[in-house]
Predict the structure.
Amino acid sequence: MKKIIGKVILTSILFLIVAQIVHSLGAMATMNYYLLEEFFPVWSSIMMPTEGPPGTNFFVLSAVFNFITGLIFSLVYLAVNKGLKPKQATKKGVLYGVLFFCVAGIPTTLSLILLINLPLTLLLVWALESFIIYLIAGGIVSKFLTKP
């Protein structure tokens, strides 16, 4: 039991790292949207307490939230991995990433399109970021959490 808890914590940390990198690259690629004054009211005071880049609190909370998401991602994998058909861990992980995106990423994106006044392109980039994170993280969790 201790061994599996350690592996779940490790995969959650690795998820956090992957997510931080992918989201940072996405933010750099779409920075023009964040700088448009018409969207300033949309951003939270945590993300933009003042004009300019987000503060330290935003990055710390992003890391905490990504760790929590990684924890959920890893625990759900443990619950469903026996039902995934591929025998090879990497294929199983990629399939899990795709399924997780279908269950979490697509509905979230569709809700954002309905609820938040942001450019569709930005919302689709966020969806793509999630897809990439889930694919990479799927490969990671399958390597660490699939019993041979």
